[in-house]
Structure formats: structure tokens, C-alpha cells
Amino acid sequence: MKKLVILGGGYGGMRLIQRLRPHEIPSDIELILVDKLPYHCLKTEYYALAAGTQSDHEIRVPFPEHKRLTRHFGTVESIDLENQLVHLKGEDPIFYDYLVIGLGAEDKYHGVPGAEEHTYSIQSMEDTRRTSETLNNLPANSVVSVVGAGLSGVEIASELRESRHDLQIKLFDRGETILPMFPKRLSNYVQNWFEKHDVEVISNSNITKVTEEGLYNHDEFLPSDATIWTAGIQPNKVVRKLDVEKDSSGRVILTNHHHLPNDENVFVVGDCASLPHAPSAQLAEGQADQIATVLKKRWHGEPLPDKLPTIKLKGVLGSLGKKQGFGVMGETALTGRVARLLKSGVLWMYKHHSGV
């Protein structure tokens, strides 16, 4: 039997399993999914778990039941590309014939002293649980600082405001205006929401140090009872250690068919892949669709096109608590209740249609 090993059950790994249906896979191919948790996690909803507005159970989805799939729960420590081995913590290595690396991202601290040691994260389920416990145990009038005003920072700051009206919440933004990648009308809407709900947005910030007692903005000390870091991501450390070509962000450079330039049997999906768009769940799923197409064509001896179609993204939706939202769908900017309902609908569809 030849082994197709999928590292990581995130959005890319999940979609790949869904697209590789049993009747389309040659009889000599075995699928092995390796993940440290026994379920798929809705990473886009980690902010709600951290804020205490959703339970752990609500953001978990069972891995698909698939008669050609073996699920192996363990922690990947390294990948030996030369010998085609995946090394796991405390276990024997797994040999692969085909490998799909979808190990996701970790926080990037940009060399800020104390940031890694003294901030809370929403990048993994384990980190988010720790963040949730800390935030929900804070006494009244505690100060919570959110570093980074991208989509994750905006969502956790707004959700935490709805969850804990007694907290002082500060959102640190490096730019002049919040969410500059969105249309001006939309970023103004989000800014106004924060002003109305007493969340302090600190623009043109530059966090130079973090301690247990607080953080330094432009070297000015500001007390903080809990500091949440949402100021950038980088590929998983396993991928960072790989001796392969990468872009300036440390993401793996791939061919048009999503595999390594010098190894057509090793694919990279999701946050670790160098692609024209910023990492997102949609992008990982679109990429997984194409990897599934490449694998099936190769297995059945069919020719591959020189270039696969451009992955089309439907848009971006964000929440401002449970009642308001914002986003862009195609060329249309959305704000308010409609945007929030759309996001809730997309999430419901995903949770209830993630089987094989």
C-alpha cells in the first residue's frame, strides 16, 4: 500500500479528505491523517471561545468517517524529506509516499522582548483555552490589551466587550486607521463601534516590550492585567525548520500544482504555503480542492494542465459581537446586522456539512 499522509486536520486537511472520496482513490492508496487533537477545530471562532461567548464544544467538528482513512493522533516534531519520514513526539516515525503539510501557523512576535512569555494567544485550541480561562477569571475593572488590530484583534476585542462590560479594553493598532485593507466606510464603521462601546483604539502604536505587569508603547509603560497578541503569524516551527525555498514571510514556495519544486509528492496547504493572497480558511480550502484534483489525475494517469485556475475568494466577514458585523463580498461592503447574519450562516453551513 502507498501512503498519503496529511499533516494537520485544519481547513485545508479537512477539505482534502472530503474531496478524496473512497471510490476515486486507487485500491493501493491509504490515507493517514495526523493531528494532535481528535477533532477539527473552527479556528475562525477561537476569539469567541477566548471571550467566553462560545463553549469549547461549539467550535469542534468531528473528523469525517472515511473507510479509506486512518486517523493518527500525535504531535509532529520534524519531517525528513530525504527519507520520506514524519517524526512524531514519543512515537515511531510514519513513512509516506505522498505528503500534504497543513500544520498551520503560530504567533509571530517580531523580536519584541517579553512578547512570547507574557502574552496570551488564540492561534491554537490549547492556547485559546488558556486565554479563555485567564480572561474570564479577571476581576472587575481589569485592563486587557489586544496587540494587533487586524481581523482577529478586532473580533476578540469586540466579543470580549460584549462578554465583559466591566473590563477596560485597549486595542493597539500600528496604522493610522483600523482595518486599512477594507474600504474606508467599513473601517470607519468598526472604529465608531469601538468608540460607542468604550473600547480604546490606540493608533500608530509600536509595542517595544511586554512584561507580566503590562506593555511598553513607544517605550511608555502602560499597565495591563492580560495582554493578547494578534500582531502577526508565521508558519509552524516544523515548517520553519525545513530546508526548502521560502518567501520573505517564511512560507514555502511551491509550483503551480502546489508541491515542492524538487519533489512532486510533497504538497503544502494553508498558512505555510506561499500564495498571492493572505492566509485564510477559504484559501486553504480552495488550495485543497486543487491538490485533490492533481492527485486524482496523477493516480488515474490523466494529464495535468500547465497551470491551475486562480483560486477565487468569495469575500471576508468579521463580527463585532453577536449582533453586528462587517465584511466585503465581491465588490460590496457590508456592515451591521446583515454582515453578522451572513457570517453566522456560513459558520452553520460549515459545521453541518463537513462530512464525507
Helix and strand layout, with pairings?
Elements: E1 2-7, H1 11-19, E2 29-35, E3 40-41, H2 46-51, E4 60-61, E5 69-73, E6 76-80, E7 85-88, E8 94-95, E9 98-101, E10 105-107, H3 115-118, H4 125-136, E11 143-147, H5 151-163, E12 168-172, H6 184-196, E13 199-202, E14 207-210, E15 214-217, E16 220-223, E17 226-229, E18 233-235, H7 237-240, E19 259-260, E20 263-268, H8 281-299, E21 315-320, E22 324-329, E23 332-336, H9 337-352
Parallel strand pairs: 1-2, 1-9, 2-5, 9-20, 11-12, 11-17, 12-13
Antiparallel strand pairs: 3-4, 6-7, 7-8, 10-18, 14-15, 15-16, 19-20, 21-22, 22-23
Helix pairs in contact: 1-8
Task: Write up what this structure looks like.
The protein is α/β, with parallel strands linked by helices and 356 residues long. It has two domains: 2-36 and 74-106 and 233-312, FAD/NAD(P)-binding domain (3-Layer(bba) Sandwich); 109-231, FAD/NAD(P)-binding domain. The chain contains nine helices and 23 strands. Strands 5-2-1-9-20-19 form a six-stranded mixed beta sheet, with no helix packed on it. The radius of gyration is 21 Å and the shape is globular. 40% of the residues are buried. Keywords: FAD, Flavoprotein, Oxidoreductase.
